[in-house]
Specification:
- By secondary structure, this protein is an alpha+beta fold.
- Helices cover about 20% and strands about 30% of the residues.
- A hairpin with a 2-residue loop joins strand 10 and strand 11.
- The protein has a 6-stranded mixed beta sheet with strand order 3-6-2-1-16-15. It has a 6-stranded mixed beta sheet with strand order 7-8-9-12-14-13. Strands 4-5 form a two-stranded antiparallel ribbon.
- The protein has one domain: Endonuclease/exonuclease/phosphatase (Deoxyribonuclease I, Chain A, 4-Layer Sandwich), CATH 3.60.10.10.
- About 35% of the residues are buried.
- Helix 3 packs parallel to helix 4.
């Protein structure tokens, strides 16, 4: 089972060309794909529905899209009729196996009077393979400062730890006053086995990264298999006046139950579809 995480920068490559086909060619060999920075109806990326286009380009995958940023983009047509449309930005999970349930969570956000900042979030998905169910998290942190990222990772940690106790998208008795809220299906479980992927905007020596290890009980796949490259950079640009993040900020971590099953890790240094490099690991099924 190959898991891949990629901040696609809304499909804009190092050549400044927007090309979702290039992105999909890069990721299509994986079994579970976590994409960050996916747009819907932004002028910069062609005013298209990128989640829908990605699903069309990868038709063998199940998919979910979770928007943390969601604002009005509606307009009136020539007949004066309102065309409802949302300008959205968020994360996407694709899987060769059914995604039996998913939830999207917003992370804490700070206001900076002199700097742009936007709502960030993460997706929690339960994937059912032929042999097991897995929790998959696709996380994208803010880039502004460590205080905001610490609040965000603590929010994530609370949800991550309590999810197995809460159970899945619905739980308990499906019948309420004769209405079938389970739709004639069994309640989806919330497994303890978990894979956490994403762009954390934090390298391994930061406090927010350490929180994942110490408070969530997760292990970085690179620490397990390739510690010499645990801080090999995953950004394809130098720090700028606006974005000062550097180092390996894209990570894949696993819960204890999966640790002995991790077989390899990789950073795709050749991919040129974004300002980030895809990271991946292979786990025994």
């Amino acid at each position: 089972m190959k898991i891949l995480s990629y901040n696609i920068q809304f499909g804009r490559g190092l050549d400044r060309v927007y090309d979702l086909k290039r992105i999909c060619e890069t990721v299509k060999s994986a079994d579970i794909i976590c994409l960050q920075e996916v747009d819907a109806f932004w002028q910069r990326s062609g005013n298209v529905d990128q989640p829908e286009l990605i699903s069309e380009l990868l038709p063998e995958f199940y998919s979910v899209f979770g928007a943390s940023f969601d604002v009005d983009n509606s307009y009136k047509n020539q007949q004066g009729r309102v065309v409802n449309q949302r300008r959205r930005h968020g994360d996407m999970i694709l899987s060769r196996w059914p995604i039996v349930s998913s939830r999207t969570f917003n992370l804490p956000k700070k206001h900076y009077a002199d700097k742009f900042n936007m709502q960030m979030g993460f997706i929690e998905a339960v994937i059912q393979t032929e042999t097991e169910s897995l929790r998959i998290y696709n996380y994208h942190a803010g880039y502004q400062d460590i205080d905001e990222r610490l609040e965000q990772i603590q929010c994530f940690g609370r949800i991550y730890r309590q999810s197995p106790r809460e159970q899945g998208a619905w739980s308990g008795k499906a019948d309420i006053d004769g209405d079938d809220w389970g739709n004639q299906t069994e309640a989806p479980m919330m497994p303890t086995k978990a894979i956490v992927c994403g762009d954390f905007n934090a390298s391994y020596e930061t406090a927010e990264y350490q929180y994942l290890i110490e408070q969530c009980g997760l292990t970085d796949c690179w620490r397990q298999l390739d510690p010499d490259n645990i801080n090999t950079g995953t950004l394809k640009h130098e720090p700028t006046a606006d974005i000062k993040i550097s180092g390996k900020v894209d990570h894949i971590l696993v819960s204890e139950e999966l640790l002995d099953r991790v077989r390899s890790v990789a950073i795709d240094h050749e991919a040129d579809g974004s300002d980030h490099k895809p990271v991946s690991c292979v786990i025994d099924v």
